[in-house]
């Protein structure tokens, strides 16, 4: 499971913090494990330090995609991914990625990636790739009346003054600028109690022109706020005492070309929550209104008994 709950303690931040965009690109630059192979093709990646010392789920999703992309013809683009978070990852250890070539057809390729730590998988993912093709086209319409991202405060502006390691990490260490359309849930739950959420997001710095980097980075960012649509109707914020939140799975579909260094609107909703689990769905639009991706995730949400 990919943990979301903040930790009470965390290591002190270094005096020279690494540029978050450069750190993201380093995470996505997997090594080839010096040629080591089994029945899988092996790659190795590092982890970004987290206040909880747990690997961020979006990171391992993005790295697993990069590993799979390394085994597919460059002309074939990822169009869907389905992954299960099996265990919490340790951010102090590297991650080994094993890719199996499940199928290479005339138009589609399928890959299975397992992310391993200590010899056991922490994530199991299957991704599908397709040669570009023409066909019917339609999409959901981007919601109207959404304020521009420039009019909304950044996380750094909201949390930067709080002398707490989790607040500092959220404010300055994330490689994405996240701006909530609704009142953010970092410290309190105010405003609407509808099971909906929306944020603008973009990378803090410019990204390379490689489309695969942008697709993987979008998977990384898609895990940030999706479960907030489950928390809102119940009056919960990320610092609710004793709350434990973890991503259980993650599915994503890429519809159209995307750049993560341009503003993207991430519209989220939760159709159901029960049994200490909630389902959340998201649609990601670029600023022109094109629907570039869809996302779905089930998360565990446990709160202490009254």
TrEMBL record:
The keyword Iron does not apply. One of its GO terms (biological process) is acyl-CoA metabolic process. It comes from the Bacteria. Keywords: Hydrolase, Lipid metabolism. It catalyses: a fatty acyl-CoA + H2O = a fatty acid + CoA + H(+). InterPro entries: Acyl-CoA_hotdog (IPR042171), Acyl_CoA_thio (IPR003703), HotDog_dom_sf (IPR029069), TesB_ACOT8-like_N (IPR049449), TesB_C (IPR025652). CDD domains: Thioesterase_II_repeat1, Thioesterase_II_repeat2. Residues 190-300 form the Acyl-CoA thioesterase 2 C-terminal domain. GO terms for molecular function: fatty acyl-CoA hydrolase activity. It holds the Pfam family 4HBT_3. Residues 54-130 form the Acyl-CoA thioesterase-like N-terminal HotDog domain. Transmembrane segments: none annotated. The keyword Cytoplasm does not apply. Homotetramer. Belongs to the C/M/P thioester hydrolase family. PANTHER family: ACYL-COA THIOESTERASE, ACYL-COENZYME A THIOESTERASE 8. This is Acyl-CoA thioesterase 2. The gene is tesB.
């Amino acid at each position: 499971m990919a943990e979301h709950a903040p930790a009470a303690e965390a290591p002190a931040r270094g005096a020279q913090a690494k540029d978050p965009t450069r750190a993201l690109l380093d995470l996505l630059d997997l090594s080839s494990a010096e040629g080591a192979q089994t029945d899988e093709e092996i790659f190795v990646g590092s982890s970004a330090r987290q206040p909880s010392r747990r690997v961020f789920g979006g990171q391992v999703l993005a790295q697993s995609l990069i590993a799979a992309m390394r085994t597919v013809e460059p002309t074939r683009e990822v169009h869907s991914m389905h992954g299960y978070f099996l265990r919490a990852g340790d951010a102090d250890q590297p991650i080994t990625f094993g890719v199996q070539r499940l199928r290479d057809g005339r138009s589609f390729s399928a890959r299975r990636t397992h992310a391993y730590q200590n010899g056991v998988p922490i994530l199991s993912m299957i991704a599908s790739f397709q040669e570009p093709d023409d066909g019917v086209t339609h999409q959901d319409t981007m919601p109207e009346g959404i304020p521009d991202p420039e009019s909304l405060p950044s996380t750094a502006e909201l949390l930067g003054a709080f002398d707490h390691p989790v607040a500092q990490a959220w404010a300055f260490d994330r490689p994405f600028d996240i701006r909530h359309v609704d009142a953010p849930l970092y410290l309190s739950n105010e405003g609407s109690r509808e099971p909906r959420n929306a944020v603008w997001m973009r990378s803090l710095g410019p990204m390379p022109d490689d489309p695969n980097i942008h697709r993987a980075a979008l998977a990384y960012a898609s895990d940030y706020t999706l479960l907030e649509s489950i928390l809102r109707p119940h009056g919960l914020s990320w610092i609710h005492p004793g709350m434990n939140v973890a991503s259980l799975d993650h599915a994503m579909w890429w519809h159209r070309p995307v750049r993560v260094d341009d503003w993207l609107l991430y519209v989220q909703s939760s159709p159901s929550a029960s049994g200490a689990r909630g389902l959340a769905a998201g649609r990601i639009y670029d600023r022109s209104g094109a629907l570039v991706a869809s996302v779905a995730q089930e998360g565990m949400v446990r709160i202490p008994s009254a």
